[in-house]
Amino acid sequence: EEPASFVHFILITSEPERVLPTISSRCQNVRFDPLPVLQIAGILERVGIESIRAKSCAALCGGDIELARELATDDGDQMRSEAGRIVGCALRGVSGRERPWEGVITRAQAAGELTEQRMLGELAEAVEAFPAGREKTAAQKEGEQAAHRAARRVRAESLEKSLRICSLLLRDNAAADGGAADQIMAVDRADSIVKSAAGRKVGPLIAAAEEVENTRRMLSRNVAEDLTLQALSFKLDHLLAGV
């Protein structure tokens, strides 16, 4: 409540509207805008990324240069395709049959397991220096718990990235359907987006994007990830199939 005069707390968030009013009312806002899309695209192009792909990754990353670099890799391209499959299945109303969320879950689980294995390997080396006894047992247990928490965090981050791409893809479909194809972010896939958006209505596409964002925020809680994405896919089917 009353910190010492030399104490300052710095809170960082990309979603200030989610900060409790009792906290935000005591803060002084300092806005940091994301890097411009063309600047990020230029960085990617200088390391050999094709111009149209660089612009797409730069637009989709939301100012996050590290995510832009990730999206520009083959693995990032696969992430975009998996997210696109969730949207594509929902547009056709076939999520229950094709289970498009499984690819996203598998990717997230693999990333988490890799992180946990790496940390456990480092832990095994570190605890060798401890003499047998309570201290070594405590260090082992604490390290295992830390590795498990890190794996959970990495899984959530992977899912969050995939859902962010889903949301932006739905936004691109809405832009194409609304006659603003020039506002499509994923310019390297603009033709397929325009085709998938043909004959649809903007409202359900926007509602679907909001549903994805709601699910993305849920991942910060201790939710069952597989069931959460499965439920999302069925909701998207309901919103979009046949619209």
How would you explain this protein's 3D organization?
By secondary structure, this protein is an all-alpha fold. 68% of the residues lie in helices and 0% in strands. The chain is built from eleven helices and no strands. It has helices at residues 21-24, 37-46, 51-60, 65-71, 74-92, 95-98, 101-127, 134-177, 190-197, 202-218, 225-240. Helix 5 packs across helix 11 and helix 7 (101-127) runs antiparallel to helix 8. It is globular, with a radius of gyration of 21 Å.
Series of H and E elements: HHHHHHHHHHH
Roughly how many Å is the radius of gyration? 21 Å
Low-confidence stretches at least 5 residues in length (pLDDT < 50)? none
**Distance, first to last CA:** 52 Å
Helix tally? 11
State the share of residues found in helices, binned by percent: 55-70%
Largest sheet, in brief, is: none
Number of strands: 0
Structural class: mainly alpha
Mean pLDDT: 91
The shape is globular
Our estimate of the beta-strand percent is under 5%
Summarize the structure.
The protein is mainly α. It has 11 helices and no strands.
Outline the secondary-structure elements.
Elements: H1 21-24, H2 37-46, H3 51-60, H4 65-71, H5 74-92, H6 95-98, H7 101-127, H8 134-177, H9 190-197, H10 202-218, H11 225-240
Helix pairs in contact: 2-3, 3-4, 5-7, 5-8, 5-11, 7-8, 8-9, 8-10, 10-11
Key structural traits:
single chain, mainly alpha, 243 residues
